[in-house]
Amino acid sequence: MNLRGQKWLIGLVIFAVVIGGVFAVRVRPVLVGGRELSERFVEKVNEKSDFLSRPEGPPTEKLIKATREENEMLLAGYWEGIEELNMVKPGLLPEDTARPSIYWLDTLRRTRRELSAAARRAGIDIPKGLSFGDEIPSDDQVPELLRRLKIIEEVLTLAVRSKLKSVTGVSLGTEEVIPSSGGAFLKRLPLYFSVTGDLESLVLFMHSLQETDSFYIVEDISVENEEQVLKANLSVSTLCLQDES
Question: What is the value of pTM for the model shown?
């Protein structure tokens, strides 16, 4: 193997290590910690559902007070843990929006303009439509559309900052629920796209996915080498809470 081939091989190994780090360092602790929090909370709730029928007899006022305080501490600890895992996403539709569908179109067009301008300055090609059409949606569809647009905006912004050459084939899949022993806990939304660039920009892009506040799981990736320009086809998923009420 010649020197240039050795450099590419070493680079691809580094690229693979970065991808593995995204899951091992960033994602696995979230899944484990999230399940532990959820299961502990559900276990305590189930214990309290049989509180009045316990064989020791009716609870005393002191025991009721202690149990109520424990429950409040448990809830506070549960949501503190969720916030530390950064799984709570703020609503993107202002509460006083009179016409959500018009707000969506304005937001979509503004996001397109801003991303297109940033991409031109960086010399990167991105999808002009951002995988959305210009039809007017129903008002009840807008919150989910805004969330999907935010994901695509974040990924494309990271691609621009990483100085990739292009992003193509961007599409979002069907959302699914990740169950746990305590019931539905997390939602998973897959995102598919392809990027091209040199090794340095691809490694930087994968590292930026790890560093962002959102959680991205690289579930599948294939890399092709075309005249020292790498093309990576990616299947990436995002995670958020199933029920934030």
Answer: 0.66
